[in-house]
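COMPLEX REQUEST
Ligand: flavin mononucleotide
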Amino acid sequence: MDFDTLVHERRSIRGYKQKPVPKEVIAEIIGLAKGAPSSMNTQPWHFHVISGEPLDRIRAGNTERNLAGVPASREIPMHGAYEGIHRQRQVDIAKQLFAAMGIDRYDKERRHDWVMRGFRQFDAPVSIVVTYDKDLDPGASIAHFDLGAVTYGLVLAAWTRGLGAVINGQGIMQSPVVREHAKIPDDQVIMTCVAMGYPEEDFAANNVKSVRRETDEIVTFVGFDEDA
Ligand SMILES: Cc1cc2nc3c(=O)[nH]c(=O)nc-3n(C[C@H](O)[C@H](O)[C@H](O)COP(=O)(O)O)c2cc1C
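STATUS: Structure written out below.
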């Protein structure tokens, strides 16, 4: 698959076949993703690939805490709720997903169910918890940048192997649960997790193509001929 096709075809996958993913395939994907650039080649990342019983314990713990109203406890600093245009884009993708799934905006029960699916990492057979070296905290924004690069590599590489994935902030919202069951060492910080598995073809949300801003809107060229 050429790069342009890969970038255009990839999309977040939120419905999975209950089919195990071989360890070797995941190792291959991580092997490709680790080609990402990092600040001064520090490569501050670690990947914890969780499946089976431990992943089920994470799903159960997340669900329990979220239903009990335990506030989010991530290990990375968080912004507040999105506002303005950022909130608008958040609403737009939610509308696309709900429309695909036939979830009415007033159907509280199904909307709640969708949120809970996210906390269960969309029932994916695999979750890759991405962490970085704690000695880079506080002020680890460059490490966060490095982890963003490697995580995009993960989802792209997965796609080339016929696997789907979604970067899943919800999955680490209750980070103490993830830390306990994934046995994350104390010298690492949990950044995010990526749910991964073979896409369920009949799952409508898997076909949602999110919209991107026009290139003209996000780019400023300086010093080109026409500006002179
Ligand atoms: C840092 C980060 C966290 C995300 N967390 C979630 C999440 O918790 N639940 C979810 O459904 N999607 C999550 N996503 C996926 C985004 O919603 C998705 O990438 C975006 O809507 C663009 O869609 P696409 O990936 O299909 O192109 C996350 C993506 C990123 C980069």
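REMARKS: The chain has a mean pLDDT of 96. Helices lie at 3-9, 23-33, 52-67, 84-101, 108-119, 141-160, 175-182, 215-218.
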